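Appendix B, record 7
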Amino acid sequence: MNVEKQEGNFYITTDKAHLNIDIIHQFSSEQSYRARGIDQELIEETLRNSQLCYGV
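Structure tokens (predicted):
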């Protein structure tokens, strides 16, 4: 079951189909300290296997 909520200019959802994998990968691999250089395939696998993902 997915949860969606609109709060002002923010849209929050647990629907993985709404997650922008390219943006998540770009941030993780280029700006995140812990995931710098991470492969996009690993991010995709992690999201597939995660019980709870959400996007804002």
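Remarks on this record: The mean pLDDT is 96. Residues 4-49 form one domain.
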